[in-house]
Amino acid sequence: MNKLATIEDLESLGFVGGVSVRTLRDRSGVVPREPGVYCVAAPSDLEPRWLQIGTGGFFKGKDPNVGLLELERNWVRTSLLLYFGRASAGKANQRGLKKRTNELVRFGMGEAVGHWGGRLLWQIEQSDTLLLFWKTSEEPEVEKARLIEAFLGAHGSKPFAVL
Hints:
Strand content: 5-15%
Order of helices and strands: HEHEHEHEH
Low-confidence stretches: none
Distance between the termini: 22 Å
Shape: globular
């Protein structure tokens, strides 16, 4: 496995996409319905500015926000890759990549939907510029765990928004 620091590293593993959150708000149809893994990455020129109160939804009444010091502590300066998620097949692919990434984006727009994972993304002021990549996989749980483990080995911590 590579160092998991750049978009090129993702692409070398078969990830495709690179669609901004802003674009996905209007055109989620570009993401396939199959099971797989996905990654949220920062554009290479991102200098994060933190929001005390992010745009994430209050799912089940829980506040998704953390303190600014925790955001700063979690930021991994050696990688543009911020979050890895998975989308399992479920019944007739109801929880596939398209559905799961749509939930991620809707959560970031303040909706109370079930995508608590990655919630730190929405405390980045420029979150609409973040990029979504995906890769179909028959074993998304295994693939996600492998990616996080490789990231941990390369950077000494989990990706920014993987808690």
